[in-house]
Amino acid sequence: MRLPPLAAALLAVALTPAASAHGIHDIESLAAAVDARVLEWRRDIHQHPELSNREFRTAALVADHLRSLGLEPRTGIAHTGVVAILRGGRPGPRIALRADMDALPVSERVDLPFASRVTTEFRGETVGVMHACGHDAHTAILMGVAEALTAIRDELAGEVMFIFQPAEEGPPEGEDGGAPLMLEQGLFADFRPEAIFGLHVWANLHAGQVGYRSGPFMASSDQFRIVVKGRQTHGSRPWGGIDPIVAAADLVTSAQTIVSRNIDITRQPVVLSFGAIKGGIRHNIIPDQVELIGTIRAFDDGMREQVFRRLGEIAEHVGHAHGAQVEHAIPTRPGNPVTVNDPALTARALPSLQRVLGADKVRENPLITGAEDFSYFAREVPGFYWFVGASPAGSDLATVPNNHSPEFFLDEEALKVGTRTLLAVTLDYLAGTR
Question: How far is CA 182 from the centre of its chain?
Fold first, then answer.
Protein backbone atom coordinates (compact mmCIF):
# COMPACT_ATOMS: atom_id res chain seq x y z
CA MET A 1 0.00 0.00 0.00
CA ARG A 2 1.33 3.43 -0.92
CA LEU A 3 1.36 5.70 2.14
CA PRO A 4 0.29 9.36 1.92
CA PRO A 5 3.16 11.86 2.39
CA LEU A 6 2.37 12.65 6.04
CA ALA A 7 2.14 8.98 6.96
CA ALA A 8 5.39 8.18 5.15
CA ALA A 9 7.17 11.01 6.92
CA LEU A 10 5.86 9.90 10.30
CA LEU A 11 6.89 6.33 9.72
CA ALA A 12 10.36 7.35 8.64
CA VAL A 13 10.83 9.44 11.77
CA ALA A 14 9.33 6.84 14.08
CA LEU A 15 11.75 4.18 12.90
CA THR A 16 14.93 6.22 13.29
CA PRO A 17 17.64 5.16 15.78
CA ALA A 18 16.64 8.18 17.89
CA ALA A 19 13.42 6.44 18.90
CA SER A 20 12.50 6.89 22.55
CA ALA A 21 11.91 4.38 25.31
CA HIS A 22 8.39 3.78 23.95
CA GLY A 23 9.27 0.71 21.91
CA ILE A 24 10.44 1.73 18.43
CA HIS A 25 8.34 4.88 18.35
CA ASP A 26 9.44 8.47 18.90
CA ILE A 27 6.47 9.99 20.74
CA GLU A 28 7.61 13.57 20.27
CA SER A 29 7.94 13.25 16.51
CA LEU A 30 4.65 11.44 16.12
CA ALA A 31 2.84 14.07 18.19
CA ALA A 32 4.58 17.06 16.66
CA ALA A 33 3.42 15.95 13.21
CA VAL A 34 -0.23 16.35 14.26
CA ASP A 35 -0.01 19.24 16.74
CA ALA A 36 -1.08 21.92 14.26
CA ARG A 37 -4.14 19.95 13.16
CA VAL A 38 -5.15 19.17 16.74
CA LEU A 39 -5.04 22.89 17.51
CA GLU A 40 -7.10 23.67 14.41
CA TRP A 41 -9.71 21.01 15.22
CA ARG A 42 -10.02 22.15 18.81
CA ARG A 43 -10.66 25.77 17.82
CA ASP A 44 -13.16 24.77 15.17
CA ILE A 45 -15.10 22.51 17.54
CA HIS A 46 -14.95 25.15 20.27
CA GLN A 47 -16.51 27.73 17.95
CA HIS A 48 -19.27 25.30 16.96
CA PRO A 49 -20.33 23.56 20.20
CA GLU A 50 -23.28 21.18 20.37
CA LEU A 51 -25.27 19.92 23.35
CA SER A 52 -25.65 16.28 24.40
CA ASN A 53 -27.24 13.98 21.80
CA ARG A 54 -27.07 16.85 19.29
CA GLU A 55 -23.40 16.55 18.28
CA PHE A 56 -24.23 16.24 14.58
CA ARG A 57 -21.58 18.56 13.13
CA THR A 58 -18.88 17.30 15.49
CA ALA A 59 -19.66 13.66 14.72
CA ALA A 60 -19.53 14.36 10.97
CA LEU A 61 -16.14 16.08 11.36
CA VAL A 62 -14.79 13.09 13.28
CA ALA A 63 -16.20 10.49 10.88
CA ASP A 64 -14.84 12.31 7.82
CA HIS A 65 -11.40 12.47 9.39
CA LEU A 66 -11.40 8.77 10.27
CA ARG A 67 -12.43 7.89 6.71
CA SER A 68 -9.56 10.01 5.39
CA LEU A 69 -7.22 7.79 7.41
CA GLY A 70 -8.53 4.67 5.68
CA LEU A 71 -10.65 3.58 8.65
CA GLU A 72 -14.30 2.54 8.48
CA PRO A 73 -16.15 4.43 11.21
CA ARG A 74 -19.51 3.33 12.57
CA THR A 75 -21.79 6.28 13.15
CA GLY A 76 -25.08 6.87 14.92
CA ILE A 77 -24.16 4.84 18.01
CA ALA A 78 -26.08 6.22 20.99
CA HIS A 79 -27.53 8.80 18.59
CA THR A 80 -24.36 10.60 17.46
CA GLY A 81 -21.43 8.46 18.61
CA VAL A 82 -18.61 7.51 16.23
CA VAL A 83 -16.42 4.41 16.60
CA ALA A 84 -13.58 3.06 14.45
CA ILE A 85 -11.07 0.26 14.84
CA LEU A 86 -7.44 0.43 13.79
CA ARG A 87 -5.92 -3.00 13.17
CA GLY A 88 -2.16 -3.06 13.48
CA GLY A 89 0.14 -4.95 11.15
CA ARG A 90 1.02 -7.52 13.81
CA PRO A 91 -1.04 -9.44 16.36
CA GLY A 92 -1.30 -7.99 19.84
CA PRO A 93 -3.65 -6.62 22.50
CA ARG A 94 -7.00 -4.98 21.93
CA ILE A 95 -7.47 -1.63 23.66
CA ALA A 96 -9.91 1.29 23.47
CA LEU A 97 -9.38 5.06 23.63
CA ARG A 98 -12.30 7.33 24.47
CA ALA A 99 -13.10 11.03 24.00
CA ASP A 100 -16.37 12.85 24.72
CA MET A 101 -17.84 15.39 22.29
CA ASP A 102 -20.69 17.36 23.92
CA ALA A 103 -20.81 20.93 25.20
CA LEU A 104 -22.81 22.63 27.95
CA PRO A 105 -25.70 25.13 28.12
CA VAL A 106 -23.33 27.91 29.21
CA SER A 107 -22.82 31.37 27.65
CA GLU A 108 -19.11 31.90 27.03
CA ARG A 109 -17.44 34.87 28.73
CA VAL A 110 -13.90 34.34 27.45
CA ASP A 111 -12.52 36.83 24.92
CA LEU A 112 -11.22 34.51 22.21
CA PRO A 113 -11.24 34.97 18.42
CA PHE A 114 -12.89 31.55 18.22
CA ALA A 115 -15.26 32.00 21.17
CA SER A 116 -18.69 30.42 20.88
CA ARG A 117 -21.59 32.64 19.91
CA VAL A 118 -23.98 29.69 19.56
CA THR A 119 -27.36 29.74 21.25
CA THR A 120 -30.06 27.09 21.39
CA GLU A 121 -33.19 26.04 23.26
CA PHE A 122 -32.68 24.16 26.53
CA ARG A 123 -35.56 23.31 28.88
CA GLY A 124 -37.71 25.89 27.15
CA GLU A 125 -35.19 28.72 27.45
CA THR A 126 -32.74 30.29 25.02
CA VAL A 127 -29.23 29.57 26.30
CA GLY A 128 -25.66 29.92 25.15
CA VAL A 129 -23.66 26.82 24.26
CA MET A 130 -20.00 26.46 25.26
CA HIS A 131 -17.30 23.85 25.57
CA ALA A 132 -16.91 24.86 29.21
CA CYS A 133 -15.62 21.43 30.20
CA GLY A 134 -12.99 20.89 27.50
CA HIS A 135 -14.58 18.13 25.46
CA ASP A 136 -13.51 20.03 22.34
CA ALA A 137 -9.93 19.37 23.42
CA HIS A 138 -10.60 15.68 24.11
CA THR A 139 -12.12 15.17 20.66
CA ALA A 140 -9.27 16.99 18.89
CA ILE A 141 -6.62 15.08 20.84
CA LEU A 142 -8.12 11.69 19.96
CA MET A 143 -8.45 12.71 16.30
CA GLY A 144 -4.73 13.52 16.35
CA VAL A 145 -3.81 10.30 18.12
CA ALA A 146 -5.85 8.33 15.56
CA GLU A 147 -3.91 10.00 12.76
CA ALA A 148 -0.52 9.36 14.38
CA LEU A 149 -1.30 5.70 15.09
CA THR A 150 -2.73 5.09 11.64
CA ALA A 151 0.47 6.46 10.09
CA ILE A 152 2.44 3.62 11.74
CA ARG A 153 -0.26 0.97 11.61
CA ASP A 154 1.97 -1.59 9.85
CA GLU A 155 4.34 -1.50 12.81
CA LEU A 156 1.68 -1.71 15.49
CA ALA A 157 1.07 -4.91 17.40
CA GLY A 158 -2.61 -5.08 18.26
CA GLU A 159 -5.87 -3.26 17.64
CA VAL A 160 -7.18 0.09 18.87
CA MET A 161 -10.82 1.15 19.12
CA PHE A 162 -11.40 4.90 18.92
CA ILE A 163 -14.58 5.90 20.80
CA PHE A 164 -16.01 9.37 20.22
CA GLN A 165 -18.82 9.50 22.74
CA PRO A 166 -21.85 11.81 22.89
CA ALA A 167 -23.76 13.03 25.93
CA GLU A 168 -21.15 12.66 28.66
CA GLU A 169 -22.80 15.62 30.40
CA GLY A 170 -26.03 13.65 30.47
CA PRO A 171 -28.75 13.23 27.85
CA PRO A 172 -31.68 15.63 27.70
CA GLU A 173 -34.66 14.88 29.91
CA GLY A 174 -36.69 12.02 28.50
CA GLU A 175 -33.79 10.66 26.42
CA ASP A 176 -31.09 8.03 26.90
CA GLY A 177 -27.50 8.51 25.86
CA GLY A 178 -23.84 8.57 26.72
CA ALA A 179 -21.63 5.66 27.71
CA PRO A 180 -24.41 3.40 29.05
CA LEU A 181 -26.35 3.61 25.79
CA MET A 182 -23.25 2.90 23.72
CA LEU A 183 -22.67 -0.25 25.77
CA GLU A 184 -26.36 -1.20 25.58
CA GLN A 185 -26.16 -0.92 21.79
CA GLY A 186 -23.29 -3.41 21.67
CA LEU A 187 -20.15 -1.28 21.69
CA PHE A 188 -18.04 -4.14 23.04
CA ALA A 189 -20.11 -6.98 21.54
CA ASP A 190 -17.72 -7.80 18.67
CA PHE A 191 -14.61 -6.03 19.93
CA ARG A 192 -13.94 -6.41 23.63
CA PRO A 193 -10.82 -4.49 24.68
CA GLU A 194 -8.66 -5.70 27.49
CA ALA A 195 -8.13 -2.09 28.65
CA ILE A 196 -9.62 1.35 28.03
CA PHE A 197 -7.92 4.74 28.41
CA GLY A 198 -9.24 8.29 28.61
CA LEU A 199 -8.20 11.75 29.75
CA HIS A 200 -9.77 15.02 30.82
CA VAL A 201 -8.39 18.56 30.72
CA TRP A 202 -8.56 19.98 34.25
CA ALA A 203 -8.49 23.57 35.45
CA ASN A 204 -7.06 22.66 38.85
CA LEU A 205 -3.72 21.66 37.35
CA HIS A 206 -1.26 23.82 35.41
CA ALA A 207 -0.62 23.10 31.76
CA GLY A 208 2.31 20.69 31.51
CA GLN A 209 1.15 18.67 34.50
CA VAL A 210 -1.02 15.57 34.72
CA GLY A 211 -2.91 14.08 37.63
CA TYR A 212 -3.89 10.49 38.36
CA ARG A 213 -5.17 8.30 41.16
CA SER A 214 -5.30 4.54 41.57
CA GLY A 215 -8.61 2.99 42.64
CA PRO A 216 -11.66 5.22 43.20
CA PHE A 217 -10.91 8.55 41.52
CA MET A 218 -14.14 10.41 40.68
CA ALA A 219 -17.41 10.14 42.56
CA SER A 220 -20.67 8.55 41.61
CA SER A 221 -23.30 11.12 40.69
CA ASP A 222 -27.04 10.83 41.29
CA GLN A 223 -29.92 13.28 41.06
CA PHE A 224 -32.91 13.26 43.36
CA ARG A 225 -36.32 14.94 43.36
CA ILE A 226 -38.62 15.37 46.36
CA VAL A 227 -42.09 16.93 46.25
CA VAL A 228 -43.67 18.04 49.53
CA LYS A 229 -47.45 18.36 49.15
CA GLY A 230 -49.40 20.50 51.63
CA ARG A 231 -52.68 22.38 51.37
CA GLN A 232 -52.87 25.94 50.13
CA THR A 233 -54.09 28.67 52.46
CA HIS A 234 -53.80 32.42 52.95
CA GLY A 235 -50.55 33.53 54.50
CA SER A 236 -52.45 35.28 57.27
CA ARG A 237 -54.14 31.98 58.29
CA PRO A 238 -51.43 29.26 58.17
CA TRP A 239 -53.53 27.05 60.47
CA GLY A 240 -56.07 26.82 57.69
CA GLY A 241 -53.81 24.66 55.54
CA ILE A 242 -50.63 22.57 55.58
CA ASP A 243 -47.47 24.55 54.91
CA PRO A 244 -45.14 22.66 52.52
CA ILE A 245 -42.53 25.46 52.73
CA VAL A 246 -41.90 24.95 56.44
CA ALA A 247 -41.88 21.17 55.93
CA ALA A 248 -39.42 21.50 53.05
CA ALA A 249 -37.15 23.74 55.12
CA ASP A 250 -37.20 21.17 57.94
CA LEU A 251 -36.44 18.44 55.42
CA VAL A 252 -33.40 20.31 54.02
CA THR A 253 -32.02 20.86 57.52
CA SER A 254 -32.66 17.30 58.67
CA ALA A 255 -31.08 15.84 55.54
CA GLN A 256 -27.74 17.38 56.55
CA THR A 257 -27.51 14.85 59.37
CA ILE A 258 -27.16 12.02 56.85
CA VAL A 259 -23.56 12.96 56.12
CA SER A 260 -22.75 14.45 59.53
CA ARG A 261 -24.33 11.72 61.68
CA ASN A 262 -25.19 8.59 59.65
CA ILE A 263 -22.22 8.07 57.31
CA ASP A 264 -18.80 6.82 58.39
CA ILE A 265 -16.84 9.55 56.61
CA THR A 266 -13.55 8.09 57.87
CA ARG A 267 -13.99 5.51 55.09
CA GLN A 268 -14.86 7.74 52.12
CA PRO A 269 -16.38 11.20 51.72
CA VAL A 270 -20.01 11.73 50.73
CA VAL A 271 -21.71 14.89 49.45
CA LEU A 272 -25.45 15.64 49.55
CA SER A 273 -26.48 19.01 48.10
CA PHE A 274 -29.83 20.63 47.34
CA GLY A 275 -29.65 22.57 44.10
CA ALA A 276 -33.13 24.07 43.82
CA ILE A 277 -36.24 24.68 45.92
CA LYS A 278 -39.35 25.76 44.04
CA GLY A 279 -42.73 26.60 45.54
CA GLY A 280 -45.12 29.49 45.73
CA ILE A 281 -45.62 32.62 43.63
CA ARG A 282 -46.92 35.28 46.03
CA HIS A 283 -45.91 36.73 49.39
CA ASN A 284 -49.22 36.06 51.13
CA ILE A 285 -50.22 32.67 49.75
CA ILE A 286 -48.95 29.43 51.26
CA PRO A 287 -48.70 27.10 48.25
CA ASP A 288 -49.90 23.57 47.69
CA GLN A 289 -46.46 22.06 47.17
CA VAL A 290 -42.72 22.57 47.12
CA GLU A 291 -40.25 20.76 44.84
CA LEU A 292 -36.66 20.06 45.88
CA ILE A 293 -33.92 18.72 43.61
CA GLY A 294 -30.30 17.96 44.30
CA THR A 295 -27.30 15.70 43.88
CA ILE A 296 -25.57 12.93 45.81
CA ARG A 297 -21.86 12.07 45.40
CA ALA A 298 -20.11 9.04 46.85
CA PHE A 299 -17.07 6.80 46.31
CA ASP A 300 -18.51 3.55 47.65
CA ASP A 301 -21.60 1.76 46.34
CA GLY A 302 -22.76 0.69 49.80
CA MET A 303 -22.51 4.24 51.14
CA ARG A 304 -24.29 5.50 48.04
CA GLU A 305 -27.24 3.18 48.70
CA GLN A 306 -27.25 4.17 52.38
CA VAL A 307 -27.71 7.83 51.43
CA PHE A 308 -30.56 6.95 49.06
CA ARG A 309 -32.34 5.04 51.81
CA ARG A 310 -31.84 7.60 54.57
CA LEU A 311 -32.86 10.57 52.43
CA GLY A 312 -36.09 8.80 51.52
CA GLU A 313 -36.80 7.95 55.16
CA ILE A 314 -36.13 11.50 56.34
CA ALA A 315 -38.29 12.98 53.58
CA GLU A 316 -41.22 10.74 54.47
CA HIS A 317 -40.98 11.15 58.23
CA VAL A 318 -40.45 14.91 58.19
CA GLY A 319 -43.37 15.26 55.82
CA HIS A 320 -45.55 13.13 58.08
CA ALA A 321 -44.57 15.20 61.13
CA HIS A 322 -45.89 18.30 59.36
CA GLY A 323 -49.03 16.60 58.09
CA ALA A 324 -47.76 16.81 54.50
CA GLN A 325 -47.50 14.13 51.85
CA VAL A 326 -44.16 13.43 50.22
CA GLU A 327 -43.33 11.93 46.85
CA HIS A 328 -39.72 11.24 45.99
CA ALA A 329 -37.48 9.73 43.35
CA ILE A 330 -34.09 8.96 44.90
CA PRO A 331 -32.40 8.75 42.47
CA THR A 332 -34.50 10.09 39.61
CA ARG A 333 -32.67 7.83 37.12
CA PRO A 334 -29.54 5.66 37.17
CA GLY A 335 -26.56 7.95 37.73
CA ASN A 336 -22.88 7.64 36.95
CA PRO A 337 -21.07 4.99 39.00
CA VAL A 338 -17.79 5.70 40.77
CA THR A 339 -14.93 6.12 38.30
CA VAL A 340 -12.34 3.56 39.37
CA ASN A 341 -8.85 3.33 37.93
CA ASP A 342 -7.85 -0.32 37.86
CA PRO A 343 -4.83 -0.52 40.21
CA ALA A 344 -2.81 -2.92 38.05
CA LEU A 345 -3.49 -0.91 34.89
CA THR A 346 -2.63 2.31 36.71
CA ALA A 347 0.69 0.87 37.84
CA ARG A 348 1.40 -0.20 34.27
CA ALA A 349 0.47 3.16 32.70
CA LEU A 350 2.09 5.47 35.24
CA PRO A 351 5.66 4.97 33.94
CA SER A 352 4.44 5.99 30.46
CA LEU A 353 3.21 9.32 31.79
CA GLN A 354 6.40 9.85 33.73
CA ARG A 355 8.67 9.03 30.80
CA VAL A 356 6.94 11.35 28.37
CA LEU A 357 6.58 14.33 30.77
CA GLY A 358 9.09 13.78 33.57
CA ALA A 359 8.19 12.35 36.97
CA ASP A 360 7.98 15.81 38.54
CA LYS A 361 5.07 16.72 36.25
CA VAL A 362 2.96 13.71 37.23
CA ARG A 363 0.93 14.31 40.41
CA GLU A 364 -1.23 12.01 42.49
CA ASN A 365 -4.67 13.63 42.66
CA PRO A 366 -6.99 13.76 45.66
CA LEU A 367 -10.45 12.28 45.31
CA ILE A 368 -12.62 14.30 42.92
CA THR A 369 -16.32 14.74 43.77
CA GLY A 370 -17.05 15.49 40.13
CA ALA A 371 -18.30 12.52 38.11
CA GLU A 372 -17.67 10.91 34.72
CA ASP A 373 -19.59 8.37 32.68
CA PHE A 374 -16.24 6.89 31.60
CA SER A 375 -17.02 4.90 34.75
CA TYR A 376 -19.44 2.70 32.76
CA PHE A 377 -16.66 1.63 30.39
CA ALA A 378 -14.29 1.04 33.31
CA ARG A 379 -16.83 -1.31 34.88
CA GLU A 380 -16.84 -3.43 31.74
CA VAL A 381 -13.06 -3.63 31.27
CA PRO A 382 -10.07 -2.33 33.27
CA GLY A 383 -9.77 1.43 32.80
CA PHE A 384 -7.25 4.19 33.41
CA TYR A 385 -8.30 7.84 33.36
CA TRP A 386 -6.09 10.85 34.02
CA PHE A 387 -6.25 14.64 34.18
CA VAL A 388 -4.31 16.99 31.91
CA GLY A 389 -3.58 20.42 33.37
CA ALA A 390 -5.44 23.23 31.59
CA SER A 391 -4.58 26.42 33.49
CA PRO A 392 -1.69 28.69 32.44
CA ALA A 393 1.59 28.24 34.30
CA GLY A 394 1.81 30.58 37.26
CA SER A 395 -1.96 31.07 37.59
CA ASP A 396 -3.52 30.78 41.04
CA LEU A 397 -5.29 27.43 41.03
CA ALA A 398 -7.40 28.53 43.99
CA THR A 399 -9.07 31.24 41.92
CA VAL A 400 -8.97 30.07 38.27
CA PRO A 401 -12.40 29.46 36.72
CA ASN A 402 -13.16 25.76 37.01
CA ASN A 403 -14.54 23.39 34.43
CA HIS A 404 -18.19 24.26 33.67
CA SER A 405 -17.58 27.96 34.31
CA PRO A 406 -18.50 30.46 31.55
CA GLU A 407 -14.95 31.75 32.06
CA PHE A 408 -13.23 28.36 31.76
CA PHE A 409 -10.01 28.90 29.81
CA LEU A 410 -7.86 26.19 28.25
CA ASP A 411 -4.14 26.85 27.90
CA GLU A 412 -3.63 25.17 24.53
CA GLU A 413 -0.33 23.66 25.68
CA ALA A 414 -2.67 21.11 27.25
CA LEU A 415 -3.40 19.78 23.76
CA LYS A 416 0.24 18.81 23.30
CA VAL A 417 0.37 17.14 26.69
CA GLY A 418 -2.84 15.25 26.01
CA THR A 419 -1.65 14.00 22.62
CA ARG A 420 1.72 12.88 23.96
CA THR A 421 0.43 11.16 27.08
CA LEU A 422 -2.32 9.31 25.21
CA LEU A 423 0.16 8.20 22.54
CA ALA A 424 2.68 7.09 25.16
CA VAL A 425 0.19 5.06 27.19
CA THR A 426 -1.20 3.45 24.04
CA LEU A 427 2.11 2.55 22.41
CA ASP A 428 3.66 1.28 25.63
CA TYR A 429 0.66 -0.94 26.31
CA LEU A 430 0.64 -2.37 22.80
CA ALA A 431 4.38 -3.00 23.01
CA GLY A 432 4.04 -4.68 26.40
CA THR A 433 6.23 -2.02 28.04
CA ARG A 434 5.96 -1.63 31.79
Answer: 15
